[in-house]
């Protein structure tokens, strides 16, 4: 039996208070915004509308509907096989870093295009800049090493008339994070990153299998949210990638007020704290996020 994930009947209190997706999906409004979604909506045993989230096409279509209905993004698509992220969780990251910026602004979240954010590894989906700009009016630079992802993100920006707010830049070196992206004299309020969490493609598939087993799925339907190798894993996995981004952040301490990254594994944190202490970080924060059964963290630091 295919795993059917119903619309939530109660508020998702584990999401950030400003997250637009705390309540159940309003399928009537979503279908009105994007009629193509109707094809993927069925009813569960309780007669409630639901979508089969094991179907990658359904996942992409509900993302398109959410982006259009909640953020006014009329044109959004990604190349086949690229990461199609869940919108509610991505929105949470944006809202939590907004809280961090508010700490230096008398407790008020700063808005407008004078706030500049760097999204490291923006991906083909360009999700963080889209949500961040629509929610707070911030301007974004999105860096990306994959040329197909760069072209996709640039198309999304252009098709939605956001070229003045979102700048997609090609990272020409896989050896660097900020070097080659941050221009001389350029200043950012905060950087963000959704790093590759795994150390190999085998690990990705094993964790996918365990996820579907927990959901009662007899056979592994694959990666319903997609993702190419460089989006999902890298040599050394999350710890090695985080070590690289932290080390290079020290070199750009005068260019960025804050740095941040998602952390998937709690066991990664002690090594990060040790590295940041060695590098001389003056302020380190860990923010816990929960979406359903999944818990992740945002590591935030500055010098």
UniProtKB/TrEMBL annotation:
Keywords: Cytoplasm, Methyltransferase, rRNA processing, S-adenosyl-L-methionine, Transferase. It is an enzyme of class 2 (transferase). The keyword S-adenosyl-L-methionine applies. It catalyses: adenosine(1618) in 23S rRNA + S-adenosyl-L-methionine = N(6)-methyladenosine(1618) in 23S rRNA + S-adenosyl-L-homocysteine + H(+). It is found in: Cytoplasm. It holds the Pfam family Methyltransf_10. It comes from the Bacteria. GO terms for molecular function: 23S rRNA (adenine(1618)-N(6))-methyltransferase activity. Its main location: cytoplasm. The keyword Cytoplasm applies. InterPro entries: METTL16/RlmF, rRNA_lsu_MeTfrase_F, SAM-dependent_MTases_sf. Its EC number is 2.1.1.181. Belongs to the methyltransferase superfamily. METTL16/RlmF family. Specifically methylates the adenine in position 1618 of 23S rRNA. This is Ribosomal RNA large subunit methyltransferase F. It comes from Mucilaginibacter terrae.
């Amino acid at each position: 039996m295919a795993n059917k994930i119903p619309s939530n009947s109660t508020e998702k209190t584990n999401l950030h208070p400003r997250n637009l997706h705390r309540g159940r999906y309003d399928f009537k409004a979503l279908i009105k915004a994007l009629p193509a979604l109707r094809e993927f909506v069925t009813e569960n045993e309780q007669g409630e509308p639901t979508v089969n989230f094991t179907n990658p096409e359904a996942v992409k279509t509900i993302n398109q509907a959410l982006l259009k209905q909640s953020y006014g993004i009329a044109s959004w698509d990604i190349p086949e096989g690229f990461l199609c992220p869940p919108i509610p969780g991505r929105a949470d990251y944006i809202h939590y870093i907004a809280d961090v910026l508010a700490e230096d602004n008398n407790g008020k979240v700063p808005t407008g295009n004078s706030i500049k954010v760097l999204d490291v590894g923006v991906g083909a989906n360009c999700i963080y800049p889209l949500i961040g700009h629509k929610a707070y009016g911030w301007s974004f630079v999105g860096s990306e090493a994959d040329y197909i992802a760069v072209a996709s993100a640039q198309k999304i920006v252009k098709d939605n008339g956001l070229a003045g707010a979102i700048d997609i830049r090609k990272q020409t070196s896989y050896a660097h994070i900020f070097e080659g992206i941050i221009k001389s004299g350029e200043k950012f309020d905060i950087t963000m990153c959704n790093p590759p969490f795994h150390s190999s493609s085998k690990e990705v598939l094993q964790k996918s299998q365990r996820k579907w087993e927990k959901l009662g799925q007899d056979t592994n339907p694959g990666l319903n949210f997609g993702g190419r190798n460089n989006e999902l894993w890298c040599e050394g996995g999350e710890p090695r990638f985080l070590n690289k981004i932290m080390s290079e952040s020290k070199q750009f301490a005068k260019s960025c007020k804050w740095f941040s990254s998602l952390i998937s594994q709690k066991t990664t944190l002690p090594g990060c704290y040790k590295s940041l202490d060695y590098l001389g970080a003056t302020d380190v924060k860990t923010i816990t996020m929960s979406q359903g059964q999944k818990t992740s963290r945002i590591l935030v630091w500055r010098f």
